[in-house]
Amino acid sequence: MYGFISIKTSLIFDIIEHPYFQRLRYIKQLGMTHLVYPGALHTRFHHALGAMHLMQLAIEHLQNKGHTITLAETEAACIAILLHDIGHGPFSHALEHTIVQGISHEQIGKLLMAKINEDLDGKLALAMQIFNNTYKKKFLYQLIAGQLDLDRLDYLNRDSFFSGVTEGMVSSDRIIKLLNIKNGNLVVEEKGIYSIEKFLIARRLMYWQVYLHKTVIAAEQMLVKILNRARELANTGVELFATPIFKHFLYNKISHTDFYQQQVHLNNFVQLDDSDVMASIKVWCQHPDFILSTLCTSLTQRQLYKVEISNKQPDKHKIKALTQHIVQKFNISEDDSSYFIFTDTINNIAYNTTVGNINILMKNNDLQDITLASDNSFLDALAKSVTKNILCYTKI
Amino acid sequence: MYGFISIKTSLIFDIIEHPYFQRLRYIKQLGMTHLVYPGALHTRFHHALGAMHLMQLAIEHLQNKGHTITLAETEAACIAILLHDIGHGPFSHALEHTIVQGISHEQIGKLLMAKINEDLDGKLALAMQIFNNTYKKKFLYQLIAGQLDLDRLDYLNRDSFFSGVTEGMVSSDRIIKLLNIKNGNLVVEEKGIYSIEKFLIARRLMYWQVYLHKTVIAAEQMLVKILNRARELANTGVELFATPIFKHFLYNKISHTDFYQQQVHLNNFVQLDDSDVMASIKVWCQHPDFILSTLCTSLTQRQLYKVEISNKQPDKHKIKALTQHIVQKFNISEDDSSYFIFTDTINNIAYNTTVGNINILMKNNDLQDITLASDNSFLDALAKSVTKNILCYTKI
Amino acid sequence: MYGFISIKTSLIFDIIEHPYFQRLRYIKQLGMTHLVYPGALHTRFHHALGAMHLMQLAIEHLQNKGHTITLAETEAACIAILLHDIGHGPFSHALEHTIVQGISHEQIGKLLMAKINEDLDGKLALAMQIFNNTYKKKFLYQLIAGQLDLDRLDYLNRDSFFSGVTEGMVSSDRIIKLLNIKNGNLVVEEKGIYSIEKFLIARRLMYWQVYLHKTVIAAEQMLVKILNRARELANTGVELFATPIFKHFLYNKISHTDFYQQQVHLNNFVQLDDSDVMASIKVWCQHPDFILSTLCTSLTQRQLYKVEISNKQPDKHKIKALTQHIVQKFNISEDDSSYFIFTDTINNIAYNTTVGNINILMKNNDLQDITLASDNSFLDALAKSVTKNILCYTKI
Amino acid sequence: MYGFISIKTSLIFDIIEHPYFQRLRYIKQLGMTHLVYPGALHTRFHHALGAMHLMQLAIEHLQNKGHTITLAETEAACIAILLHDIGHGPFSHALEHTIVQGISHEQIGKLLMAKINEDLDGKLALAMQIFNNTYKKKFLYQLIAGQLDLDRLDYLNRDSFFSGVTEGMVSSDRIIKLLNIKNGNLVVEEKGIYSIEKFLIARRLMYWQVYLHKTVIAAEQMLVKILNRARELANTGVELFATPIFKHFLYNKISHTDFYQQQVHLNNFVQLDDSDVMASIKVWCQHPDFILSTLCTSLTQRQLYKVEISNKQPDKHKIKALTQHIVQKFNISEDDSSYFIFTDTINNIAYNTTVGNINILMKNNDLQDITLASDNSFLDALAKSVTKNILCYTKI
User: Fold this and answer.
1) Are residues C32 and C170 in the same domain?
2) Which of A15, B24, C347, D342 fits a 20 to 30 Å CA distance from D19?
3) Is the pLDDT of residue D376 over 80?
4) Do B313 and B362 fall into the same domain?
5) Is the residue at B1 inside a domain?
6) Could you tell me the residue range of the domain that residue D254 belongs to?
7) Residues 6+ apart with CB under 8 A from D98
8) A113 and A181 co-located in one domain
9) Comparison of pLDDT for B169 and D90, the residue scoring more
10) In A121-183, which ranges are continuous DSSP H helix?
């Protein structure tokens, strides 16, 4: 997407070579989304490198505008963004809700960063300060995590490109060119207003058209239900095929404290990738448990849930009728029917002011929030949360 | 942009070969915009062919959805959109405000269509009906002229592509795929909502970033002032170099009625293109009239007006001071200073409901205006007109 | 890459939904190439659909030139190309040389086609005739398998696009537009000569820059050696973790005849994909066998063989010295050192006249081979086979 | 094409602002080629800036490889390539053969560079040394003018992009990345061999498909004939409309010596652009001279010569028959028929070793000519000149 990406220092090279980082090659950025958009096979490895590339560009532009950013700070900021997603496991969203419940990917990320830091003689100290927002130059943190960070610029473009939903493309080149620093904080110059509007709309579109696409939801929910069922069976001592490390997480209930105190959990976690999950699910297609094998076969053959999205609550009568139909057809209990019919909610805010602002540097040198700087009030509307109800059920 | 464009019938081929149409090769779509975005050299010839190509795609999709559109209607719709801008002259906006004031490009377009129709034995009858919205199938007209027509889809993408402002790209492929017909009118299917939002934002961005870019305004206003001055001089009998057809429009005051009654005007008009204007302006750089030669030299060497855009009225004191400075520096009258300093307003509505709606065909088969169909109220804001004040003056 | 791909008939839809076809989603087109070109994660699923899309275009163009191709023939040709690679397993090249030696992917492909045909009530009869080149219209076969078929046009472009080696792109649009039929055979019109030259050069470049890139060879050879070692261990009864279907192929020696006579082999084969191999290799990193665990760890952490490519025979003294070094360092037998140092040859012909010609239809209606039709003799050179020697060894 | 191009120094900015350079905005790079490839409207202004951008990239890569190139040298090299085509007039090829015969565009270029140097206080001294190949670091000159210079890399890509003949694209990014310096000369590293092969083939394709396309030839020859006729009429005192500067060249016979001794010629030359020629030709459509008006009308309405290209000499009988037909039909002399029927030759060498070599830096640090370094002998063939005969005549 960006042509050649250059690796500027030997420390960065060593981090990329580190097994914790190489493992990202085998973890898809968008999980099961490829079942809807077949091109979406790009991995967290790509995204991490891409975000680092944008960091290099951004720092260069800021330096050209007269801001001092040292070589050490540049390297550290590159490392911080390179590792910003290092804590993700395979199908992260699904796993965090099922098998690996004790601890979040942000927490695992910090543990792994500390480990890599040890392996590399403490050379990540500054990167970790930036990442934890304890470094004095706040704008470096804001380039990594904010309403308009390089993480988002990269993933929106990358997800658009590989999914083929080209409408999600944003002009990262132009936005980066218009970044500036004011009072130590990251800001966007006034002539970037229209590009920011476009960025927010693109983000909104990507949510509803890709990340929360109803067939994507169907596939991800099916994975969640499969992992839940597998866990349930494992808890009751049922034998399940799995790779040893995957088995570790299926058969052990690992608390937050365990994760920090017992090294074995993290050691296993860093070996887990998409292939453990997918290879096991294929084997489970033959498992004697009706629910597990049915769900696994459905996922493998892409017979996904039907998903209905609505602003209103799903119709209770419809749910009841479908449930009874499923109970009879599959000859299962009403409790177990929740593997085949269930409701949930999905949510998105295009511009979430609770986690930070996009500040515009006006020509007169004032700062204004983007919602005020724009000559149009539509951005207010984008700052409102949108929640929708979903109803998922097996087509039978 | 679209790969190969195919010409489906011999009638369409004949129209493209017609001198009136070939002349569009020499009229740039965006006038002087190339002084800001150097790539923007594309012509009305390209745009007309591109819009026809999109018409072919749109009709194919509508036919695949079960709507009957005959071969004759398809050809006529293609011709209608091919000729939708045939009435434009070079630097159309500037000329209509100066030299060719008697008649609009829409009116000239209809005259030219009638002429081509004569030359081609009346074969354009159906195309003219569609173009004039007198044909029963209203959706064919709406594909040519509406809030979401193929004209806009093509020019937004084309202008984005050639100017390099890639943020203005819209997903014409996807939008066309989601067009449908309901009660005889053109509608967009519900899953196209986010694409329409994106289209409206892209259009808004193109206005402020390209069409109303302050340096583009500077160049176009300079052309307007040059033509005004030339006309003023011509009116008082001053000798001006010009190609014969350009001279015709400089030295004659042609009323609306004249245009319809005297064939000579139209005959001259269809020979006018960018080169007449640009070649003459270059000669005027040496003209004894100080105002004319100064303006022409400025334009040729790209020393354009400084333009200030603001939501507020320009500061009267500033204008006064600048005016006096110009009067003294150039030793001209206060009246004549209006060639070097002046104010104006610019205006844009992203979604102009007064000229038609974008109707969304909901899944339940209802129709809703896009501003209601979207789950977000920001489109209301886009339907409001935005007006800004501009102050232009020569940098001295 | 091509925008939307349309699925024209319900039979084609059913084939795509078939589990044999859905499985291609999980088999990467270029195996381990992503270790060199990280974007190269595209699958055989994508390529099959892409080739079908080109078939639709090609047939449309040929029909427009007046050649009769019926709806049934069109559907059958689409199906034939959709299934042309159906017999491939994961890491096909490596597996065929190690675990699945009894039978080629072409033979498996024909078995699977016959199976799908059964499942779909014999509706694939015509597609199978075309695929086997027993149908009277030879050009349909030539569109699938020839020196200039749609398979090649798609994979060259797709592999270029996803690897980022944009120099391998060919103008499939233009080449397809210039296809024609003469005496029942596929030909290219004369004005396509330069495009064909470019196609052959692009193919040559893709071979040396991607398919036979030395780091790609290093990764693929490592996989071959891993599978060989696993097989060797399995043969002697050593316990190896693997998914059940992968185990089937590791522990059984399946002859060509077995494959045809015992259904179980094919049944297992169609469930095998990349994840079985990769998940097992990760587990083998901990295996007590030194050779297996060393190779698997190397592959997983991307510590690949060093590969030297040369027109000359590798230096025997160098090989001997390296071998001894490895034997000592690893404390293994000289026999076993062949897992860590070995030689081989690689080979490529840009234009292989032994498997068919590219015929040019000259303006005077004569046919000429491309090497004669071009005004330049360089194509002769491209028709010569290029063989190179490789030396691979573990860096220690 | 390249995203944003940055202007690094104020001297470069001043050169771009200079009227001699701004004038390039109005001179199309490919003359009348847009009559065949409508997008080909890009100008010499674009190409000059693009080539400078590639120079910046190339120097950056060479510096990263450890070669010393000072800031002053960088600026001078950028200026030298920015101005490498400054001596071109409108429709350069046609004018040099007709109206401006006294002096070549290279000579005018040097005169103009000297003038700009004067205007800018001698600051172009180093740039002029590089351009004239009198500076010690020969590789800087080779980056501007050689078998593989940045001029060619830019124009091949630019002409491909704007003409839509995407097959002419070369991987300038990759080639530039593989440039190096050996013994003071520009070389390409061994792994760039396939990219160079592709570059030479792309160049060959662009010649036959664009620069020497038969309809492009038809249009350019028609322009040559028009200018010849106009000149002939002017010489005999016939009155012709033209802009004053164009008239200067039509009515005066300016020798090489005149050009150097009389300032007026150069002063007029730098004001000439496409619009002077095109505006005048349109007026000549009404000229009483039958030959002139016929040719001008043909060009304006795109009724071009029929052109036949062949390896053989055109058939004399055919020429005779066509000539007689034209003489009778138009009632003109046999002499004058040469405006409507004539023969010529066209020529191309993809790799012209007489003007310099492409040297490959082998891994063992040896230098080899590309034709020897490649493992395939086809490049020898590309180094041979290809000449073809053309026959042009008016279709009547």
Assistant:
1) yes
2) B24
3) no
4) no
5) no
6) 214-346
7) D224, D227, D228, D231
8) yes
9) D90
10) 125-131, 138-144, 150-163, 172-177
**Average pLDDT, integer, range C58-72:** 95
Average pLDDT over every residue of B61-81? 96
Is the pLDDT score of D277 beyond 70? yes
Question: Cβ A22–C46 below 8 Å, yes or no?
Answer: no
| B173 interaction partners in chain C (CB closer than 8 Å) | 3-4
Task: Tell me the residue type at A68.
Answer: T
pLDDT at C376 over 70: no
Question: Are both B205 and B297 inside the same structural domain?
Answer: no
Same domain (yes/no): A226, A369 = no
Average pLDDT for chain A: 92
Is residue A264 in a domain?
A: no
What proportions of chain D, in percent to the nearest 5, are helix, strand and coil?
Answer: 60, 10, 35
Give the C-alpha separation, D261 to D41, whole Å. 35
Identify whether the C-beta of residue B47 lies closer than 8 Å to the C-beta of residue D45. no
Q: Which residues pair with D345 in a beta bridge?
A: D389
Residue D377's pLDDT is 61
Pairwise pLDDT comparison (A98 vs A120), residue with the higher score: A120
Whether B386 is covered by a domain: the verdict is: no
D276 CB within 8 Å of a chain B CB: yes
3-state secondary structure of B232: helix
In this structure, are D16 and D50 located in the same domain?
A: yes
At A100 the pLDDT is: 81
pLDDT at C2: 66
Q: What is the mean pLDDT of residues D78-105?
A: 90
Mean pLDDT value across residues B169-187: 93
Q: What is the pLDDT of residues A124-178, one digit of tens each?
A: 999 999 999 999 999 999 999 988 899 999 999 999 999 988 888 888 989 999 9
Size of interface B-D (CB pairs under 8 A): 80
For A182-208, give the DSSP string.
ETTEEEEEGGGHHHHHHHHHHHHHHII
Gap from D300 CA to chain B (nearest CA, Å): 8
| B68 min Cα distance to partner chain A (Å) | 30
C9 touches chain B (CB under 8 A): no
pLDDT at C1: 62
String of b and e for A341-365 (b: at least 16 CB within 10 Å)? bbeeebebbbbeeeeebbbbbeeee
Looking at the fold, whether D155 and D128 belong to one and the same domain comes out as yes
Q: Closest by alpha carbon to D383, among D188, D200, D142, D151?
A: D200
Q: Per DSSP, what are the bridge partners of residue A393?
A: A306, A341
Q: How large a percentage of chain D has pLDDT more than 70?
A: 98
Q: What are φ and ψ of residue D98, in 5° steps?
A: -135, -75
- How remote is the C-alpha of C160 from its chain's centroid? 14
What confidence score (pLDDT) does residue B146 get?
85
Structural domain count of chain C:
2
Residue D287 near chain A (CB below 8 Å): no
Nearest by CB: B19 against D38, D273, D301: D301
Inter-residue contact A54 to A46 (CB < 8 Å) = no
> Which residue on chain D is closest to A176 by alpha carbon?
D4
Q: How far apart are CA C200 and CA D201, in angstroms?
A: 10
- Partner residue opposite A4 with nearest CB, options D3, D4, D173: D173
| CATH label of the domain that carries residue D262 | 1.20.1250.30
C76 and C146 co-located in one domain: yes
Instruction: Look up residue C28 and give its DSSP letter.
Output: B
pLDDT value for B379: 73
